[in-house]
Amino acid sequence: MAGAGRIFLIDGSAQLYRAYHAIRGLTGPQGKSTNAVYGFVAMLRKLLDEHRPELIAVAFDLPGPTFRTTLASDYKANRPPMPSDLSEQVPWVHEACEALGVSVVTAENYEADDVIGTLATRAVAQQFDVTIVAGDKDFFQLVNDGIRIFNPRDQGTWFDAKGVRKKFGVKPEQVVDVLALMGDATDNVKGVPGIGEKGARELIETFGSLDELLKRVTEVTRKKHRTALETHSKDALQSRALVQIHTDVAIAFDPDSFRYQGPNTQRCFKLFSDLGFRTLVADYAPTISAIETDYEIIRSPADLETLIAAVKQSGRCAVHVLADSAKPMQASLVGIALSFATGHGRYIPLGHLALGAESNLDLSKTLESLSPLLRDPTVAKIGHNLKFGGVLLARYGVPVEGFDVDTMIVSYVLDATRSSHRFEDLSLECLGYKTTKEDELLGRGSKARLFSDFPPEAVVEFCSERSDLTLRLADHLQKSLADDAVLESLYRKLELPLIPVLSSIERAGVNINTEVLTRMSHQFEESLATLQREIYELAETEFNINSPKQLSDVLFEKLKLPTTKRTGKTRVASTSVQVLEELAAVHNLPRKVLDWRSLKKLKSTYIDALPRLVNQRTGRVHTSFNQAVAATGRLSSSEPNLQNIPVRTALGLAIRGAFIARPGAVLISADYSQIELRVLAHLSGDESLIAAFKRGEDIHTQTALKVFGTKSGLDPHELRRRAKIVNYALLYGKTAFTLAKDIGVSQAAAQAFIDAYFDGFPSVRDYIDEIIAQARKSGFVSTMFGRQRRVPELTSRNGQVRAAAERVTVNLPIQGTAADILKRAMISIYPDLPAETSMILTVHDELLFEVPEITAESVASLVQDRMEHVVSLDVPLTVDLGLGPNWKEAKG
Q: How far is CA 714 from CA 353, 586, 717, 723, in A?
């Protein structure tokens, strides 16, 4: 119809429930569920974006009785009450609608359906086209020339009169009569017993309407239906009264009140920030350009001297280093931005050729002028990921001193469970400003632009803004840090001093024997080919071993092995490592596939990759250490990840053999022995564990005696292996179900082993119970040195989520304390390392050093002494020490 426009009417209550069930486990900063709000907002934003409505409103049910409960007191009586974690989200959903510019409509004594029906009818009367956004078939009764239904599920489906007839089998005006006959058990709408949807459609098609059907009931040919209709005619009429949508609710249709004006950005920003919707906040955040700022480019040596003087007078500055690569050991220095006061930003072009005509600065002379300032420890340096700039500037002969606030690390200390500590996210969350992402300016990977191509104005604005916001962010985060003396101490005494240590390790790099790796590559290729032939023979066919689908077909269709798990989306039988490990017990092919996968991964990740990663300038491989990733406080490494090389396998040791010392030097490996179990003994105060460590006994042998007794009948090697698995399984909160699979026993036997363990070490059980109880009250768990991890999931109603949180709660104090001890040792050792000696790697509980042969013994003694005495525990810390020309031999 040629109307005055289109109005979208949304069944808000139904969409709210759908969002609640579609997204699970989402909570906001205060620990309250936000899943329904997020899902509803996502639906609404998608609708607004794709359909750009002129008029729009969303209708919701109100709590309490309606006219339908007056007609039938048991109407919807079988429905459970709204879940409490959903009801508390309803006000947020209403607020989100209004913030996004969508009117919310309700009516006392009526349901959302009736509100929509009324508005739709009155809109059509005023020549508007109406789209009802709903998935409930009850709305089919409203469809006519001016009203269509849009179901947003999946890609969206539209229903006009023809669509209703095709989907439901009758014309829209007949829908309510079909619904009356078939009833609805969910809402306690009785209908007519014995008449289902198919029978109801056939009867209404034959007789045209419910009234005509009841008038001519004797003509119904099927006796069962005829008898039911004669007996339950009143029920049919009452059911129609219940399912019929009212179109006469006392709601005025004023088009202007439903006209879409767009979102209120300030309101959306605040609400979505409060709810923790980080992916949405950026769309509504202001930029720093909204306020007055003083950003300039340094064009001459005189300008530079003025800037240096201002920074010295301030006593601090935020530093942003602009480079053309995310890898500091490969990057070229483009420019530096400094901010010494809020609102101020100065950009110093260094390798920025596009600014050549505008700047009289020389790279080497500029760095020479900046060097005293950057080296000055009395001028506090502030930055986001200070390590990156520190490594890069040191390469240019300007080592930075005076590190003070690293906003990335402070954010990590304050909340290690954040999904990321990116500058853009923190700026949004803490300052309320949206900033340009560096990747958007520079490009990355194959799309990266040469630094000579950067647009000058964009670079000056971006870098000045970045340094300015970093200074603001530092001030904001420091206030939060100052509120917790323990966390502030953790940052100042552990994380901050670690930055120059890690910078030194990254610059030093590791020496790789590429010839060894080339030989290994050929050997692995032969082994892979052999394994492939064996797999094909066992399968009696050739197939793509890398293809989960083809492997699944071979295992479960051809070989008829039992299917234990299916993938979430495709529902194909899973071929995960866990599944293949289980199947390996009954067939040899899964074991061969696991071996093939392991070889393939080692070959691609290390053997073939490491030679390509050798830095052409240094001749060494330089990894990057991530200080703000693992919630336990452990360091991780990337590009390449040198911490995932298998520790105890022959292949892993062979790869370590390619890590070599330079001529005239050796490698020292210093590895804490069973540090996590020693930490457990200290934290739990278990007398048996403490006594065993003090006597220097093998803890796994002691566990074997406590758990399996003296008459287990097991081989001593197997006995110790199982005891070791039990020790570490309980350390990480594993259940009897998981332990049973790990050691190949029944779940009942595994539970018996767990019970025996806690009987043997009773204080460990008490410690675990106490730490979980404390964390449930406080909402967080801590290491011995105060590192915290939030665990709000401990109070979750979901048993699986709660159990996972308990495992995290048990693990953090142990693994986190062990990680903190290693960091303290690194900080203690680093300043006293002699010349030409480098700490070159840290892997979990191990440190690796490259030392001149002539000083190796004295350095080894220093390292061992510092590591073993860096902290005082109730049990001794011991370090396994080894020296050798390569990592394999040093590891022993």
A: 73, 22, 8, 11
Contacts 24+ apart (CB under 8 A), 687-696: 687/763, 688/760, 688/761, 689/761, 689/763, 689/764, 689/875, 690/874, 690/875, 693/875, 693/876, 694/875, 694/876
Architecture of domain 511-621: Up-down Bundle (1.20)
Pick the CATH number of 5-258 from 2.40.50.140, 3.40.50.1010, 3.40.50.150, 3.90.660.10: 3.40.50.1010
Residue 668 · residue 849 · CB < 8 Å: yes
Closest CA to 849 of 816, 815, 825: 825
Q: Supply the pLDDT for residue 565.
A: 63
Ramachandran bin of 101, using left for φ above 0, alpha for ψ from -120 to 50, beta for the remaining angles: left
Query: Under DSSP, is residue 732 helix (H, G, I), strand (E, B) or coil?
Result: coil
HEC assignment per residue over 635-666: CEEECCCCCCCCCCCHHHHHHHCCEECCCCEE
In this structure, of 187-191, 445-449, 491-495, 631-635, the range with the lowest mean pLDDT score is 445-449
Hey, what are 449's tokens?
């632009």
User: In this predicted model, what pLDDT tens digit does every residue of 707-766 receive, in sequence order?
Assistant: 777 666 667 777 787 878 887 877 777 777 777 777 777 888 888 888 888 888 889 899
User: Is there a contact between 163 and 175 (Cβ–Cβ < 8 Å)?
Assistant: no
Average pLDDT over residues 677-695: 92
- Per CATH, which fold does 678-806 belong to? DNA polymerase; domain 1 (1.10.150)
